[in-house]
Design a protein that fits this description.
By secondary structure, the protein is an alpha/beta fold. It has a single domain (about 15-175, about 235-385), classed as TIM Barrel. The chain has helices at about 15-25, 30-35, 40-55, 95-110, 120-130, 145-155, 175-180, 185-200, 200-210, 230-240, 250-255, 270-275, 300-310, 325-330, 340-375; strands at about 70-75, 75-80, 80-85, 110-115, 135-140, 160-165, 260-265, 280-285, 315-320, 340. Helix 12 (about 270-275) packs across helix 13.
Amino acid sequence: MNQDTRGLGLAPATIGDYRELARRRLPRHLFDYMDGAAYDELTARENQLGFQRLRLRQRVMRDVSQLKLSTRVLGQDLDLPLILAPLGIAGVMARRAEVQAARAAEAAGVAFCESTVSICSIEEVRAATMAPFWYQLYVMRDRGYARELMQRAQAAGCPVLVLTVDLAVMGARYRDIRNGMAGQLALGGKLSKAWDLVSHPGWLLDVGIRGKPLTFGNLTMAVPDARSLPQFKAWVDSQFDPRVTWDDLAWVRENWPGKILLKGVLDIEDARQAATAGADGIVVSNHGGRQLDGVAASIDALPRIVDAVGDRLEVLMDGGVRSGLDVVKALALGAKACMLGRAWGYAVAARGEAGVAHLLASMRSEMNVAMALCGVTDVAALDRETLLNPSS
């Protein structure tokens, strides 16, 4: 851990440190793809500010010598209430990043979720790990290919299908438009992008050359030889299905025997519909602010949804989680566990598997401290009494 973060001779200690290391290491258009959000990025900022507004309730003179952070989520025992969220094209942020992150998650006793649009395929992640990992799917127009992906995930032993439901259309991410990640660039833009790549020789050698093939591992049959994000975007535009309704969940259930988790629920009525339609759980999520800007922060939406469906569904959340203290706050508001997206993306981009492992160890330590100083010895006992100003 001897790599400097801001030129001050400091080892990375926080997700902010890893973000800065990732910003230095990655070509700008790739960093902006991971770091950016939709439109003015207001919701992305609110996701973090929502946590900052919550205050923990410090308690003293309690026996906190033994702390229990383990939990059971959707039938799987986890050492920490954390899941590494599906992160599209993570494999361009670090060499075979999905494999590195899955290994770190396995060592830490948390779940890893493979994205449909990962660089590493389901089978590559399976071959590199022993623990079961989750699989994320979009409802595609080509239902035959969606069924094939579910079959591949089943064959790999994935116990949970994470169905992303907030991508009926793609949000406009202005950083990606400026950088050419969402379309074609003029000649000047192409030259600038080429310079962006060659001015990051460490990334170019480690990922661009040694990390090949940089294709979408789960989509090689659907997008043959797809090696660029414009090609991927064209496939997305043709396959993401804006006609999807709650009736389609029945089709998914017919083809998936395991647990189904709906990711992208932000409204109470949608949460109730998810329970009625047969989901096993939901992720309260605004897609990290990458879809519709100006919606509620995930942590602000969480308690109302828990009150509405927490007795019928397992409720997870993501969006703005940057520390173990944030996890404690989310669990106090009723979340069963938290998903980490950008957080592990920064860490793997900065330091690979070691970065993700250190990130998870840091979050464990932060949770231990927060729980001890709040006088709570078991994550299952975290509730709104743990907070001074719980949302309602």
